Amino acid sequence: MAPPPRRPSFASPRGRIARTGSSGTGVRISPASMLQAQHVLQTQQQAIQNLQAEITALSLRGQCPQPRIPSSAAPEKCEAEVSPAAFRSWKRSMECWLQLCKVKPNEAVHHIRLHCVPILQHALDSRYTDVQWSALSTEGAFNAIKQLVIKASNQAVQWLEFFDLAQEPSESFNDFFIKCTQKATDCAFTCPNCNHDLSEYMLLRKLMVGLSDKVLKRQVFQSCNDIRDIDSLRVMCSAFEAARDDALNNKHGLQLPRAAAAEV
Questions:
Q1: 30 inside domain
Q2: Range(s) of the domain holding residue 118
Q3: pLDDT tens sequence across 152-192
Q4: 29 — alpha (psi -120 to 50), left (phi > 0) or beta?
Q5: Cβ-count burial of 119 within 10 angstroms (0-12 exposed, 13-18 middle, 19+ buried)?
Q6: pTM over the 0.85 mark
Q7: Do the beta carbons of residue 245 and residue 228 sit within 8 Å?
Q8: Which residues does residue 78 pair with via DSSP β-bridges, in sequence order?
């Protein structure tokens, strides 16, 4: 157990130590000692006020110490050759990470370069000097990387891959949805007259016709006019899969994983 705190003591004018008693009947403290104690307390209070004022000023300038972002949250390095969808995903992750870390705009381009694989860094260094790269904006740095890493592809081939997509018998609707979304993003469907984005319009219809379960597909076709968006279709298909899996589990008298139940 820690010893009890000692009572404050001050030097008396004659060199003796004057102590205050618990009942206030101790030796009387000299005025000089009281002034000394008050001076010490005032100095400490002033130091605390100055520190609080400095913290407030730093907070107003946005220079307050920020919580450290764990290294595991950092995006993976951009590969030397990626699809348009993969590059967009990496770019978005980098933008989120830069924002969380509160990286200054003039430092962001250097962080972006360091989040590229070595061979891609070498390609950037051969095109840009350090001064030229430092002068780029954040968006300019992303565009410079995009020109180097996006795979050359034929639009007709991308359309073919999209329209040929079909759900595998053991594939969940969510997995099929992610696969179709990536392909639709690569195709970049737009209206030829007004350049309106048609990705969601095409994706919804691809999901409907690509379903593997005949019972579910029949229900979807019957409710086609009522399904206005992708979220409505996802709710319908997920509910159907959950009910089907529960029925299979009850039929066999045991709880099977969904992937295993789909194979039964």
A1: no
A2: 74-149
A3: 667 788 889 899 999 998 899 999 999 999 888 888 888 88
A4: beta
A5: exposed
A6: no
A7: no
A8: 116
